[in-house]
Each structure stands twice: as structure tokens, then as C-alpha cells.
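quick one, 105 residues, struct below
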Amino acid sequence: MRIGTDMVEIARIKDPDRLAKKILSSKEMEYYEARTNKVECVAGFFAAKEAFMKATGKGLALAPMNEVEVLHEEEGAPYILFKGKTYSVSISDDGGFAIATALYE
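---
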């Protein structure tokens, strides 16, 4: 098992819609579009995807970011779906930063 962590400074995201279109899948876009806190939301998605890619040991060479999906259980907990398999992820934001930790087995 490997663990990956990533942190994003939210203020660095100047155009959240542009970033969302670049890194989110269609399912993630539906979730994103329904949010009022779009900058924090896309920062969390980005951090989660980066954390997962780091956990695999392959980093950005793993796949395009929109192929690593951050989805949510009915109760709201996030998880990663990649190539038909689910992985654990935790996402949080506070103090101008979004952070995520992902597990890869």
C-alpha cells in the first residue's frame, strides 16, 4: 500500500471553470456545477487527483487527470474511481489551502 498527499493554494486558481474543464470528467463536472464554492471544490479535486497519482508511484505519467475520477458516496464521502476500481481519499480545505490524501493498493 502507498500513500500520496497533495496540497493546493486556493488563491493560485484564477479561473476555476477553465481548470475544471481541463481536469474533470463529465460526472465530476455535474458535481462541480452544483457547488457554490467552485474554487475550493476544484482545488480539492486537483489535490485528490495529484495525491492519488503520487500514491501510484507514477505521478502525472499515470493518465490524464480526467481519467482519475473523484466521486462521492450517497452520504457525501469522496472516493477515487480509476479503471473500474475504487480507492480511498480524504479531502479538506481550510486557511486558503486544499489538501488530500489518497491510498493506493
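The chain has one domain: 2-104.
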